[in-house]
Design brief:
The complex is a heterodimer of chains A (about 400) and B (about 525).
Chain A lengths: L2 H5 L3 H6 L2 H17 L11 H19 L3 H23 L2 H7 L2 H26 L7 H19 L2 H25 L4 H24 L13 E3 L5 H7 L1 E3 H19 L1 H11 L1 H6 L4 H25 L15 H11 L4 H20 L5 H8 L1 H10 L20
Antiparallel strand pairs in A: 1-2
Chain B lengths: L12 E12 L2 E12 L3 E5 L6 H8 L7 E6 L2 E3 L4 H6 L2 E4 L11 H6 L5 E2 L2 E2 L1 H15 L14 H14 L4 E5 L7 H16 L3 E6 L2 H7 L2 E6 L2 E7 L5 H9 L17 E11 L5 E11 L2 E6 L6 H8 L5 E8 L2 E2 L5 H6 L2 E4 L3 H5 L6 H5 L10 E2 L2 E2 L1 H14 L16 H14 L4 E5 L7 H16 L3 E5 L3 H7 L2 E6 L2 E7 L4 H8 L9
Parallel strand pairs in B: 3-10, 3-11, 6-9, 9-10, 15-22, 15-23, 18-21, 21-22
Antiparallel strand pairs in B: 1-2, 1-4, 4-5, 7-8, 11-12, 13-14, 13-16, 16-17, 19-20, 23-24
Helix pairs in contact in B: 14-15
Classes of the chains: A mainly alpha (about 400), B alpha/beta (about 525).
Chain lengths: ~400, ~525
């Protein structure tokens, strides 16, 4: 069937015909089609997105015939959607467009991505050690409330951060006890954590603040101002929150820890084959406890960003994260349980949230539709269109010593 | 051999276990067991399943705490409470089910737990270097940078041995090491064992295969029902004498079977193609027949299309191309139910996952196929009493021990579970019977029973397809042997073919002898 491709011994041309290369190229062209009309490219003719989309879709069809069906159909779908979005964009006025796409879009994307990064990296530690953590949402609630409380009472955002991390670590410790020591079902246990966190924060919110809004003047997490970068850069990274920078550092640090150090090797061993780890003398329980508590601390850091960050203004609302913890979990899965992947997914989700807000200038219904994008993308990723995501083999399986 | 005069080293004991006792609720697993290993010897620990070999080794490796007795390593009394302490005392264990992490490299698996480091970071190249040195020192060829998921089972075993050596093991426990290997790989393993021995390592070789014991061991200790029966030098031991010590009675090692009385073609497979669950073609154009009164053996290394072939014959996997005919009836498109009704009996590879519902009672398991038809049921109503009667009859006919009709199937021993599956399948009077790995993991007594039963079913005029990874089983039972390699039949032999010839074909023919 493919004798003529193998007969060509030029490695580059063979590689370019490789099904996965054409599939990803098709996906990329589909996405590109949607962005042709917006800055910085600003192609105003309808023909360009149509052309790019058709090219992407045909690469997809080629990929399907080479056997990579899921990837191929994904590229076809991306091409078709890209044509639709591209046409919509070329038809809208240039003024509207530039109000949606400008330098602050980048800053806003990073801002929305920040809690997701902390949540997803936290989740990564827990799940790489073999404990599924759907309690991220609850751990974030803890961070959001106790962070405000600490900052209010201590009159210092740093103290708030410490209190938030402590509260997240504490509820994670409770979860770890159930999931590791008592070997209870981790989905049920994680759901319990989510409810427990809402209950605890709700109770103390009423008791401590009598259900009134938290007083004004609570010190907020500061932004880091960087001047003299030029117009575009200053607009995008000149005024980011301190936690956003910390999140970017966390991505690098967590990668090094997880994949380049002995402790990371042990954590991954516990998540893949705990008995093998046990037989070489690794304390599986200790590793898992440590990782789950760390995931609580990190998720709570993401949580305090919601109440004490630029979008929160130092006020706490019931059920504050509104699903951010679950989206972080989705980013973790979308990113294949790897720091860089989770970061990319968090950026994508942050971008879709940011653009959803800006699309209000067109219509509120489009904007709402855009907010659903993270979930649709996650569904597509889990269904295996863009490569297959593989969870750690022992993820979610309690370990019993012999 | 490598150890010219073991007797002169009597005083130099690496390990002494005296009067070891271990009780589990209701069972005495080790009853005053004594066991010793000299420095530099290969000591075989022989016994049936449940004889107490694993318990004894788990005690030695620190996984169980003994109820009584004394353990000395290099003359010093020890009491291990975890594997880590046993490792520190120089004991290494290669488990029957490998303890390797597929997504990590060979080097990562070996150094896990005592990793070389540069500051905070893992010293990846140092680890690979160390592994390379060790593997050269003992002739254990592996690629330190390869992912474990990409290497063969034989190589995985070498990684396990290297893991123990990396931890400084002087005494190696090999638990059923040849169970997963081809004959060629087993020969290589024996060479490795001899080179370890030459280096002064002591080896405990746990097995129930008698020929291997006679080939590799310096001394042999036989356990039976938790007691030490004897410790004897290899010289003077025979397969028959060891089998008698293991089982406690005379055992028929060779299956006694007369010439086959071949009748009509009952199974006719033509140009069969089958895909596996991931859509990869695993059976690629297989044609063969099985006649009434004949056992046809399918030999091959695991993963060469056996499972897909069996599933297609039983109606469990879709046939991509080709036909399957049972006694003149085309079942290529049949559902499992239609295949059963056409006269196919199926003893599946994995009795615990596919043969039985472990949480069901024996009587419910017996009724799994015919629960919906008389006499078990009528007018949509099940009659449990009749199921129980049926189960009682089969328990008696097939000598299923360890429970009655209401016993949970999961509570039976492996041998009795397999007898139960065989009973259910044979009792339906199939024309064509698939026996997939019928004796995997069973002890000598149960193997003897099942082999005799298969031969007697053959003599009844059934067509039997025996699929097994145990070459010895294929050779001793089959009237004709087909070798399956990468989804194709690469050889057909009569039962007098040599083990080496089949072994070569299993690895893809003569041109790949070096593999």
């Amino acid at each position: 069937m493919n004798t003529w491709t193998t007969r060509l011994d030029n490695p580059l041309s063979v590689r370019l015909r490789d099904a996965s290369v054409t599939g990803y190229a098709g996906l990329g062209l589909g996405v590109f089609a949607a962005f042709l009309a917006i800055p910085p490219i600003e192609a105003r003719a309808v023909v360009w997105p149509i052309l790019a989309g058709i090219l992407g879709a045909s690469l997809g069809v080629w990929t399907v015939t080479r056997g990579r069906r899921r990837l191929g159909w994904g590229a076809v779908a991306a091409g078709v959607i890209g044509i639709g979005l591209g046409i919509l964009a070329t038809r809208s006025s240039a003024g509207n467009l530039s109000s949606v796409f400008d330098a602050t879009l980048f800053a806003q994307t990073l801002s929305f991505a920040t809690p997701l990064i902390f949540g997803a990296i936290g989740g990564m530690f827990s799940e790489r050690s073999g404990v599924v953590n759907i309690g991220l949402e609850g751990m974030m609630v803890m961070g959001a409330f106790w962070g405000v409380y600490g900052a209010d009472k201590g009159n210092s955002w740093a103290l708030g951060l410490v209190v938030a991390m402590g509260a997240g670590g504490l509820i994670a410790l409770v979860y770890a006890f159930f999931a590791i020591q008592l070997r209870s079902d981790q989905i049920v246990g994680g759901t319990g954590v989510n409810f427990l966190a809402v209950g605890i924060t709700g109770y103390f919110f009423v008791t401590l603040y009598h259900n009134n809004p938290i007083p004004n003047g609570v010190p907020l997490l500061p932004n880091v101002h960087i001047a003299g970068l030029g117009h575009f850069l200053e607009g995008s990274i000149g005024d980011l929150n301190i936690l956003t920078w910390a999140g970017l550092a966390l991505v690098v640090v967590s990668y090094v820890v997880m994949f380049k150090t002995p402790i990371g090797l042990r954590i991954r061993a516990c998540g893949e084959h705990p008995r093998a780890a046990d037989t070489v003398g690794i304390n599986v329980y200790a590793i898992r406890y440590g990782c789950v508590v760390l995931s609580g601390v990190l998720a709570a850091t993401g949580g305090i960003y919601l109440s004490e960050g630029p979008q929160g203004n130092g006020s706490f609302l019931f059920d504050m994260p509104q699903g951010v913890g679950f989206i972080a979990l989705a980013a973790l899965i979308f990113g294949n349980w790897r720091p860089a992947g989770a970061f990319a997914a968090a950026l994508l989700f942050g971008f879709s949230t940011a653009i959803g807000l800006r699309l209000q200038v067109y219509s509120a219904s489009y904007a709402t539709l855009f907010n659903a994008l993270p979930f649709i993308l996650t569904l597509i990723a889990v269904a295996g269109v863009i490569g297959r995501t593989v969870a750690p083999a022992a993820d979610g399986k309690p370990y019993a010593k012999q | 051999m490598a150890n010219p005069d073991p007797v002169s080293q009597t005083e130099d004991l690496v390990l002494e276990m005296r009067g070891i006792r271990k009780e589990f609720p209701g069972v005495v697993a080790n009853d005053e067991v004594s066991f010793e290993v000299r420095r530099g010897e290969v000591h075989a620990l022989l016994g049936e399943n449940g004889a107490g070999k694993s318990t004894l080794m788990n005690i030695l490796y620190g996984l169980y705490k003994p109820d009584g007795g004394e353990i000395r390593v290099n003359g010093k009394p020890v009491s291990f409470s975890s594997a880590r302490e046993a490792i520190q005392a120089g004991i290494g264990m290669v488990h029957q089910h490998f303890m390797l992490i597929p997504v990590m490299t060979v080097a990562e698996n070996i150094v896990l737990g005592i990793e070389p480091s540069k500051g905070f970071l893992l010293d990846e190249s140092g680890a690979e270097q160390r592994v390379r040195e060790l593997s050269q020192q003992y002739g254990l060829a592996v690629d330190p940078g390869a992912l474990v998921s990409d290497i063969t089972v034989g190589q995985e075993q070498r990684v396990e041995i290297l893991k123990a050596l990396y931890r400084g093991a002087d005494l190696l426990i090999l638990d059923e090491p040849t169970a997963v290997l081809t004959p060629q790989e087993a020969t290589e393993l024996f060479q490795i064992i001899r080179s370890l021995q030459a280096d002064g390592k002591s080896i405990i070789f746990i097995t129930h295969k008698l020929n291997e014991v006679l080939e590799i061991a310096d001394r042999i200790t036989v356990l039976r029902r938790g007691k030490t029966i004897e410790t004897a030098p290899r010289a003077g031991a025979t397969e028959a004498s060891l089998a008698r010590a293991m089982v406690g009675r005379e055992v028929l090692l060779r299956v006694e079977k007369g010439a086959s009385d071949v009748g009509d073609v009952l199974l006719d497979v033509k140009d069969l193609h089958v895909l596996d669950d991931r859509g990869i073609e695993k059976v690629r154009g297989v044609s063969f027949t099985v006649h009434a009164g004949e056992i046809v053996g399918i030999a091959g290394v695991d993963g060469n299309g056996q499972s897909e072939l069996i599933d297609a014959l039983a109606g469990l996997q879709k046939v991509q191309q080709g036909t399957i005919t049972v006694d003149g009836r085309d079942i290529s498109e049949a559902t499992p139910r239609q295949a059963l009704d056409a006269g196919v009996g199926h003893i599946p590879e994995d009795r615990q996952r596919r043969g039985l519902v472990l949480e069901f009672s024996i009587s419910e398991n017996v009724a799994l196929h015919d629960y919906a038809s008389p006499p078990d049921a009528r007018w949509g109503w099940i009659f449990p009493g009749r199921m129980v009667e049926h189960a009682k009859r089969l328990i008696k006919d097939f000598d299923v021990r360890g429970g009655g009709p209401f016993t949970r199937a999961g509570g039976l021993s492996g041998g009795n579970q397999q007898k139960l599956v065989a009973a259910r399948e044979i009792d339906r009077d199939p024309k064509f019977l698939i026996a997939a790995q019928p004796t995997r993991g069973l002890d000598v007594g149960a193997i003897e029973y099942l082999h005799r039963r298969l031969v007697s079913e053959r003599d009844e005029g059934r067509a039997i397809l025996l699929v097994s990874l145990e070459l010895e089983e294929i050779l001793s039972l089959s009237d004709r042997i087909l070798v399956l390699y990468e989804g194709r039949i690469v050889g057909e032999h009569t039962s007098d073919v040599s083990e080496e010839e089949i072994g070569l074909k299993m690895l893809g023919g003569k041109e790949k002898t070096a593999a």
